[in-house]
Design brief:
alpha/beta; binds iron/sulfur cluster; 16 helices; binds 1,3-dihydroxyacetonephosphate; Rossmann fold; 14% strand
C-alpha cells in the first residue's frame, strides 16, 4: 500500500512538472524542423501540456478538432490528444493518415461503457434515441444515433422531439446537467464518469464561492460539481459558468472578474493565462489527466519522421460511427 502511494505521488509530481517544464529549447527547435519537413498538421487538444499547444498548428476542444480533421486539406494529421479523438478524426477523414504519438492514451470515461453494454441498454428501450458523448470508443459510436461534445450537447439533445426517449451516455454529470437544464423527463443517463472531473466535487466549488466573493468559476459539465453548480442560489449562481474548454477560452477574452477559478483539466490554463490582467487558477491542482500527458518529444518526433502511431478503425465500425458523427456535425442528417 505504502509502495502504491509512493508511486502515485511520484506520477503526480512528474505530471505537475511535465505541465510546466517544457523540453530544452534545442529539442523544441528539432521538433519544429521535423514538423516543417513532414508537412503534417499537428493538432492539440486544449488539455495538452503548454509546449505541445505552442508547437501545434491548431488547438481546440473535441468539437473543433473533429471539424478540423474533416475539413483541413492536410493529408497527414498528428493528433496530440487521446485515442477517441484520433479515432474520431480517422472516421471523419478515412483517406487521411492520422497519427496518435501516445498510442496508449486512453480515456477513463470512454472505458465506462462497452459496445455490448450499449447494445443491451438499447434493446431494453426500443425506439429511443441514443446520444453518445464523443468520449467513447468507435464501436460505441457505431451503435449511437448521434454524437455530441460538451460544446453542442445541449443544443442537440434540445432538438430531439420531447416524446422520444433519450439514452445519454456515458457521462453522468454532463447527462444530468442536460436533463435538468432542458427539463427532459424521458431521458436516461448512463452512470459513467471521468476520474479527473469526478474528483472536482461540490465541496470544492462551495468553498471557493464562499471564500472569495469576487471570484468567478468556469465549470466543465463533466465535473462532479456540475449538478451543484446548477443548483446554487443567488448571488452565487451569477458567478458560475458551465462551459466546454473552448468556450472557457472564449469567455476569458471578455471576462470582467479579476480572479477566475477553473474546474477542469489544468492544461486549459495555458491558453487562459494569455489573457492579461486576470488571474486564472485551477479549482484543484491535481486535476491532471494522465492520458493527456503521454506525448513525449521522442514520440512526437517518431510520428513526424517515421509515421509512428497510425490509427486505424475497421471499415464496418467506421462507416456506422461516421453516421452518428455526421449527424452531430450536420443537422440535416439527424434521424428525427
Ligand atoms: P472538450 O470537449 O470540452 O474539449 O472536453 C473533452 C474532454 O475530454 C473532457 O474531459
Ligand atoms: Fe478522458 Fe477525463 Fe482525460 Fe478527458 S480528462 S480525456 S474525459 S480521462
Amino acid at each position: 500500500m505504502a509502495q502504491w502511494r509512493a508511486r502515485a505521488r511520484q506520477t503526480y509530481i512528474y505530471l505537475m512538472l511535465s505541465q510546466t517544464i517544457a523540453p530544452a529549447p534545442e529539442v523544441i527547435e528539432e521538433l519544429r524542423d521535423a514538423h516543417r519537413r513532414s508537412g503534417a498538421l499537428i493538432v492539440a487538444h486544449n488539455y495538452q501540456p503548454g509546449w505541445i499547444q505552442d508547437l501545434a498548428d491548431v488547438t481546440g476542444d473535441s468539437l473543433q478538432l473533429a471539424r478540423i480533421a474533416q475539413s483541413h486539406p492536410a493529408t497527414r494529421i498528428v493528433f496530440c490528444g487521446v485515442r477517441f479523438m484520433a479515432e474520431t478524426a480517422k472516421i471523419l477523414a478515412p483517406e487521411k493518415t492520422v497519427l496518435l504519438p501516445a498510442r496508449d492514451a486512453g480515456c477513463s470515461l470512454a472505458d465506462t461503457i462497452t459496445a455490448e453494454q450499449l447494445a443491451a441498454w438499447r434493446d431494453e428501450h426500443p425506439g429511443a434515441i441514443v446520444v453518445a458523448y464523443v468520449n467513447t470508443s468507435a464501436a460505441v459510436k457505431a451503435l449511437a444515433d448521434v454524437c455530441v461534445t460538451s460544446a453542442n450537447a445541449l443544443e442537440i439533445v434540445g432538438s430531439i422531439p420531447t416524446d422520444r426517449t433519450v439514452l445519454f451516455l456515458p457521462d453522468v454529470f454532463l447527462g444530468t446537467w442536460i436533463k435538468r437544464t432542458l427539463r427532459r423527463a424521458q431521458m436516461l443517463v448512463w452512470h459513467g464518469e471521468c476520474h479527473v472531473h469526478a474528483a472536482l466535487e461540490p465541496a470544492l466549488l462551495e468553498r471557493v464561492l464562499h471564500d472569495d466573493p469576487d471570484a468567478v468559476v468556469y465549470v466543465h459539465p463533466e465535473c462532479g460539481c456540475t449538478t451543484s453548480a446548477l443548483l446554487v442560489d443567488e448571488p452565487w449562481s451569477r458567478r458560475v459558468r458551465l462551459l466546454s474548454t473552448t468556450q472557457m477560452v472564449q469567455a476569458a477574452s471578455t471576462e470582467t472578474h479579476s480572479r477566475v477559478i477553473v474546474a477542469t483539466e489544468t492544461g486549459v490554463l495555458h491558453q487562459l493565462r494569455r489573457h492579461q490582467g486576470r488571474r486564472f487558477e485551477p479549482l484543484a491542482r491535481s486535476a491532471v489527466c494522465t492520458y493527456m500527458h503521454r506525448v513525449t518529444p521522442t514520440l512526437l518526433r517518431a510520428a513526424l519522421e517515421d509515421g509512428w502511431g497510425a490509427v486505424d478503425v475497421d471499415p464496418t465500425t467506421s462507416a456506422a460511427a461516421r453516421k452518428s458523427l455526421l449527424a452531430m456535425l450536420d443537422p440535416a442528417r439527424r434521424p428525427w
